């Protein structure tokens, strides 16, 4: 539908389409110019001083809307003769400049988005390296990423999701580094979404990942710009969603969820030790409690003789079988974790510490559990928190429950059977069409240099084959090994 030919008809059409919104402002300026905007979406200082001031000073002879748009010294300007794009931008905080007798209207970007200044990343914390995290502003997040990668090959495409929310999304990738098929796959999945609205990247990632029924995340949600920058340099693709302080990075492997940007800021031997500690923590978190249940239920012969006496004394007052005892403690730990996360920060920390001590001591004295199991469950819970990505930590804690039940019913055979089911499930998963268990399956020994291990940077001259990047080399390995003094 074209724009009406008079201000009254234009105002009437807008109010009818917007259901008589009370915050719609129609302001008449000189020379027959009319400004239309939402008072709670625009920067009032920008509209009242700069835009109106410039319109009052501009004199055109002969007058044309194209010439006026070029002389307006305010942000972005667009010309339109249709009602739909004018409505869309008006709802995003733009101002419509309209003049009677002209078929075109000028759209001026005067939006003032509610946002906050970049602050420290609160969830993915590190000791060494940049501390800045993403905000809820799409423009701010895009600017942060461009400050890390100041190159013309950093491409960003603007997409829109949701028929009602019209959420703005930025698709980021490095040209000639990211595989074109991966970019097209992600672009197509977003284009195929038929949904009324998407609020935040956490919702979007569930709509575009390969298997939404899996408990394991296939795309990384991160609030760290340096992790996004490292991923883009590897040939991966990132999504920034307006209103969300988390970016989506893909394709991702299972091992990527246990890598931290801090691994590249530390020396290779220290980083490899810490990364190995994280992998070891996975096994502790998953197997510690099920092994206790299986040993006390079916496999007493696996317990060392020196532990039998203190173990028997510890369980002498416990009337419940090991399966019920372990499930009770695991559920208690999860309740404490969830309560601590929902309470205010200072209260939540106190709740976690005091609640754990009081409930644990009371459970032992009441005969609900033994001291040994409390120590094992606490160690397993502590190990699950070493995972850098929050969603993967939840998945690991979830896997522990069916494994405990299987250990209580079938013993060691139940543990092995559950592990096999989890491994089969992981091997079958993909991330944007890429194998999820790369480089373990299919085995790629060279790609293990910066996944399972963390070797020195001269050994990491080639990019991983996982992203199928056309630009396979980061730098010349031979030149990187050369060490020359200044006088040479």
TrEMBL record:
<dbReference type="InterPro" id="IPR004995">
    <property type="entry name" value="Spore_Ger"/>
</dbReference>
<feature type="compositionally biased region" description="Basic and acidic residues">
    <location>
        <begin position="473"/>
        <end position="488"/>
    </location>
</feature>
<protein>
    <submittedName>
        <fullName>Uncharacterized protein</fullName>
    </submittedName>
</protein>
<keyword id="KW-0812">Transmembrane</keyword>
<feature type="transmembrane region" description="Helical">
    <location>
        <begin position="403"/>
        <end position="427"/>
    </location>
</feature>
<keyword id="KW-0472">Membrane</keyword>
<dbReference type="GO" id="GO:0016020">
    <property type="term" value="C:membrane"/>
</dbReference>
<feature type="region of interest" description="Disordered">
    <location>
        <begin position="467"/>
        <end position="488"/>
    </location>
</feature>
<keyword id="KW-1133">Transmembrane helix</keyword>
<dbReference type="GO" id="GO:0009847">
    <property type="term" value="P:spore germination"/>
</dbReference>
<dbReference type="InterPro" id="IPR050768">
    <property type="entry name" value="UPF0353/GerABKA_families"/>
</dbReference>
<feature type="transmembrane region" description="Helical">
    <location>
        <begin position="279"/>
        <end position="300"/>
    </location>
</feature>
<dbReference type="Pfam" id="PF03323">
    <property type="entry name" value="GerA"/>
</dbReference>
<feature type="transmembrane region" description="Helical">
    <location>
        <begin position="372"/>
        <end position="391"/>
    </location>
</feature>
<comment type="similarity">
    <text>Belongs to the GerABKA family.</text>
</comment>
């Amino acid at each position: 539908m074209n724009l009406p030919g008079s201000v009254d008809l234009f105002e009437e059409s807008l109010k009818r389409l917007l259901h008589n919104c009370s915050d719609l402002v129609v302001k008449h300026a000189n020379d027959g110019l009319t400004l239309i905007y939402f008072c709670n979406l625009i920067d009032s200082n920008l509209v009242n001083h700069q835009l109106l001031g410039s319109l009052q000073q501009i004199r055109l002879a002969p007058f044309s809307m194209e010439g006026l748009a070029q002389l307006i010294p305010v942000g972005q300007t667009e010309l339109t003769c249709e009602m739909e794009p004018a409505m869309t931008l008006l709802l995003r905080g733009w101002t419509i400049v309209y003049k009677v007798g002209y078929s075109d209207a000028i759209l001026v970007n005067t939006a003032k988005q509610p946002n906050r200044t970049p602050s420290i990343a609160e969830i993915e914390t590190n000791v060494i390296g940049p501390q800045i995290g993403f905000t809820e502003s799409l423009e701010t997040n895009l600017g942060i990423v461009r400050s890390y990668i100041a190159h013309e090959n950093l491409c960003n495409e603007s997409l829109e999701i949701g028929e009602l929310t019209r959420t703005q999304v930025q698709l980021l990738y490095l040209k000639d580094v990211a595989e074109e098929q991966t970019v097209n796959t992600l672009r197509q999945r977003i284009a195929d979404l038929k949904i009324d609205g998407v609020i935040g990247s956490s919702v979007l990632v569930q709509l575009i990942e390969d298997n939404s029924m899996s408990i394991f995340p296939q795309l990384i949600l991160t609030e760290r710009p340096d992790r996004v920058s490292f991923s883009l340099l590897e040939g991966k693709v990132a999504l920034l969603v307006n209103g969300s302080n988390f970016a989506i990075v893909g394709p991702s492997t299972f091992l990527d969820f246990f890598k931290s940007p801090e691994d590249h800021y530390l020396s290779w031997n220290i980083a490899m030790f810490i990364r190995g500690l994280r992998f070891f923590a996975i096994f502790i978190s998953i197997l510690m409690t099920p092994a206790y249940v299986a040993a006390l239920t079916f496999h007493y012969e696996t317990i060392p003789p020196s532990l039998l006496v203190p173990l028997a004394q510890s369980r002498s007052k416990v009337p419940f079988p090991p399966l019920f005892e372990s499930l009770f403690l695991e559920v208690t730990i999860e309740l404490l974790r969830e309560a601590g996360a929902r309470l205010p920060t200072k209260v939540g920390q106190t709740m976690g510490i005091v609640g754990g001590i009081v409930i644990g001591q009371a459970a032992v004295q009441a005969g609900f559990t033994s001291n040994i199991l409390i120590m094992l469950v606490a160690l397993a819970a502590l190990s699950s928190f070493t995972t850098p990505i929050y969603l993967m930590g939840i998945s690991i804690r979830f896997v522990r429950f069916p494994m405990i039940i299987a250990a209580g019913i079938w013993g060691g055979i139940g543990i092995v059977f559950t592990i096999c089911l989890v491994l089969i499930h992981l091997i079958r998963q993909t991330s944007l069409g890429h194998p999820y268990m790369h480089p373990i399956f299919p085995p790629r020994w060279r790609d293990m240099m910066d996944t399972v291990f963390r070797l020195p940077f001269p050994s990491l001259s080639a990019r991983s084959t996982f992203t199928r990047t056309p630009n396979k080399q980061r730098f010349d390995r031979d030149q990187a090994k050369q060490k020359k003094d200044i006088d040479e």
